[in-house]
Amino acid sequence: MDCREFLAILSDYLDEELDSSICDEVEKHLEECQCSCLSIVKTFRMTIELYQSSPSEDVPREDHLCLHHLLWQRWIEEDF
Fold this sequence. Notes:
- With about 80 residues, the protein is mainly alpha-helical.
- It is about 75% helix and about 0% strand.
- It is elongated and about 50 Å long.
């Protein structure tokens, strides 16, 4: 497994949705990788933990509508 293959399945790996044989390949890659794959995994896990432990807040309706409008405009601009 190379870094590109690993990054393609990173989400499934973090969500523990891979077969054990593929997990073994991932673990081997992480042990041998000379790039930053292990740091990426650690960063993603930390981000997930921080998100899950943070209190949720409701977005004010006006902000929600504004964001929705901006995203819609960007989508229209990119499609045409």
